[in-house]
Amino acid sequence: MSSFPGPSWLSQRCVAWALSFSHDNELSQAGRVEVRSGTNRAVRRCTMIVGTLRILPAPDRHAEVLEVFRAIQGPVLAQPGCAACHIYEEQGPEPAVVLVERWESQPALEAHLRSETYRRILGAIELSGGPPEVCFDYVSATDGMALIERSRKPGGTTAGR
């Protein structure tokens, strides 16, 4: 166990689905991986797809975009393979609205992109004052409190972890 005097959840066992990339960059399921959080090697190995949609609605359409995103949030979360769906409003000179979704697999994401719910998301893009920023990130590892612990130790390093 870790020497970090943190909350008890740091030592709980986590189970994650591991996916790996084949040589031609297509996703293939590799099986389950068990990782113990709170150890010095708390990095969870898995592939999660994070979709980010950032739009700058015309000022008179901002509330309408938020209304669409709030209306689809529940149906998106109910879709198989959806791990999260969050809506953010950026503050500042460009008051963007951001939709962030996390998907457990490529097939789940693709089913979502073909869904009627996603058609509504595409409709919200039409309310934008300019081109949207769309990005799908394939995350193969995550870290948490263990990274903070390693980084804050005197002489600590995160290299190779």
Describe the structure.
With 161 residues, this protein is α+β, with helices and mostly antiparallel strands. The chain has 2 domains: 62 residues, no CATH class; 91 residues, Alpha-Beta Plaits, CATH 3.30.70. The protein contains 4 helices and 6 strands, in the order βββαββααβα. The strands form 2 sheets. Strands 4-5-3-6 form a 4-stranded antiparallel β-sheet, with helices on one face. Strands 1-2 form a two-stranded antiparallel ribbon. The longest helix is centred in the middle third of the chain and has 17 residues.
How large, in whole angstroms, is the Cα Rg? Answer: 19 Å
Question: Which consecutive residue ranges, at least 5 long each, have pLDDT under 50?
Answer: 1-44
Helix content: 25-40%
| CATH architecture term of the largest domain | 2-Layer Sandwich
N-to-C CA distance: 17 Å
Counted up, domains total 2
Q: Strand share of the residues? A: 25-35%
Tally of alpha and pi helices: 4
- CATH class membership of the largest domain: Alpha Beta
Please tell me the overall pLDDT.
Answer: 75
Strand order of the largest sheet: 4-5-3-6
Number of strands: 6
Short description:
The chain is an alpha+beta fold and 161 residues long. The protein is 27% helix and 35% strand. It has 4 helices and 6 strands; from the N terminus they run E-E-E-H-E-E-H-H-E-H.
SSE topology:
Layout: E1 13-21, E2 27-36, E3 44-55, H1 62-78, E4 82-89, E5 97-103, H2 106-113, H3 116-125, E6 133-142, H4 145-152
Antiparallel strand pairs: 1-2, 3-5, 3-6, 4-5
